[in-house]
Amino acid sequence: MDGTSILLAEDDQYLADSLSSWLREQGFEVSTVESLAEANHALRQQAFDLLLCDLRLPDGDGFSLIDLCRTKYRDCKVIVMTGYATPDTAMDAIRAGAFDVLTKPVIDEELLVAIERAVSQHRVEAENQRLKQQLDHKFGAGSILSQDYRMLKLFDIIENVADARASVLITGENGTGKSMIARAVHRASNRRDAPFVEVACGALPDNLLESELFGHVAGAFTGATSNRTGKFKLADGGTLFLDEIGTASPAMQVKLLRVLQELQFEPLGGTKTETVDVRVILATNEDLTEAVRKGTFRQDLYYRVNVIHIELPPLRRRKGDIPILVQHFVQKNAEALRRTIAGFDREALQSLQEYAWPGNVRELENVVERAVLLSRNEVLTLQDLPPEMLQSPSKASNVAGNLAPGQTSWHPIESGQALSLREALEEPERQIILETLKMFQWNRVATAEALEINRTTLYKKMKRLGLDDPRLQYMH
Predict the structure, then answer these.
(1) Which of 44, 150, 391, 431 has its C-alpha lying 20 to 30 A from 92's C-alpha?
(2) 157 three-state secondary structure
């Protein structure tokens, strides 16, 4: 209990002196005040862990102090001491926000137990807050490392739609971080304190997926010996994330459409209709518009899930993010192994940036983890990279999707689609302008002069390339 600070608000001088002396003997830090005004002043000047106050003070009652601590000084627990307590008075004080109510004359042991309980609860609340902050740091949008303008615009979308009830569809290649984005939407929403429940739809056959989502009753199928609660019910009040939604069968798509429209369902084998309050986020690496055209994905379900669409760019389209991601993964793995790793040398980092990353951020993280695990040096080199990343330039181009099989001349190709010259030059142009802006501390006049273009042209290019976002000035 050492270090616990207590503010004692008591107008009976004899009681205040004796009680404060006893509390100091128990190891507490105690300050005393005699009035409501003095208590207000003391609370403004110092952060207290606990307020012991009489309900009757010369210039007012203790209820105003309870309300003040509840609304403004939330880390300060309140224990009320009164010689006029009735059952109604005690209940009113608890409802107002007091932690406990003690009747005068206060028994020492009783007061000590109340203080210990209050301090213990404060510690639990502080730990919960710390854990919530860790979750926000780990899964919030701030945990997603990027200075790419596409990702910055994506963060704005997350912030704007976080509290909406509408479904969110996240699309992107495998390894781009769809699950992380789903968690970031949840952490940014007013549902952040409620459950986040994730289901990998592609990992389960249809009958098991139905049971996983909606639950089942005993006897619904062979082996169902007891009732089971489904993920929709477990996520009630929070967020349900359905990954690989493109793999759902036509029958499952019908069931999903109903629950997304009505937020109602029946457990497998049951007749009772369940109603839930769930925000649904879905993800897929498939082209659902093409699936709708082919008839493998219901058009009405597509329109239902595609209310808010977040498309994640592949890592090869945001290569400017590779250095900061690499350094983050190096630091993360080095700390886990309790080793000192400075990072990759220039040649190795260039190779990392030139690689196509078909597995996207997940593959990059695995490559960095492998390098940190296997290397015995503080600086990582080309020798620490996997063999497939050390191919000849022509082979590397093939891996990168720049040369399709059988091609003899270079045409920018990505995911089977040719890039225009403007698209191919967009990222290098953005990097040149970004580095020049950094060099001149974001002075646009100096940047335009250094690039030998006029300011109007620079402004237009910055807007087109997403460099007009002020957050970029604080990224390194």
Answers:
(1) 44
(2) helix
pTM of the model: 0.59
Question: Is residue 126 packed enough to be buried (19+ CB in 10 Å), middle (13-18) or exposed (0-12)?
Answer: exposed
Q: Facing residues of 9 across strands?
A: 33, 53
Question: 53 pairs with which residues across the strands?
Answer: 9, 80
Which token pair is 416? 């089977």
Q: DSSP secondary structure string, 278-307?
A: -EEEEEESS-HHHHHHHTSS-HHHHHHH-S
Please indicate, yes or no, whether residues 179 and 41 belong to a single structural domain of this protein.
Answer: no
Distance of CA 207 to the CA centre of its chain: 32
In a domain, 43, yes or no: yes
Residues 445 and 385 in one domain: no
Where helices occur in 147-245 by DSSP H, the ranges are: 149-161, 178-188, 206-214, 231-234
Distances (CA, A) of 279 to 67, 170, 179: 34, 14, 15
Count: domains in the chain: 4
Interval 134-170: pLDDT, tens: 544 444 444 577 778 788 888 888 888 889 889 999 9
115 within 8 A of 79, measured Cβ to Cβ: yes
Q: What residues contact 137, with CB distance under 8 A and at least 6 apart?
A: 143
Residues 305 and 157 grouped into a single domain: yes
CATH number, position 78: 3.40.50.2300
* For residue 105, cis peptide bond before it (omega within 30 degrees of 0): yes
**Domain stop point among 396, 418, 440:** 418
Q: Is 129 left (phi over 0), alpha (psi -120 to 50) or beta?
A: alpha
DSSP 265: E
Report the C-alpha dihedral over residues 252, 258, 261, 263, rounded to 10 degrees. Answer: -100
Cα separation, 301 vs 256, whole angstroms: 8
- Reduce the DSSP state of residue 314 to 3 states and report it: coil
Beta strands (DSSP E) in 159-263 are 168-171, 196-200, 215-216, 228-229, 239-243
Confidence of residue 275 (pLDDT cuts 50, 70, 90): very high
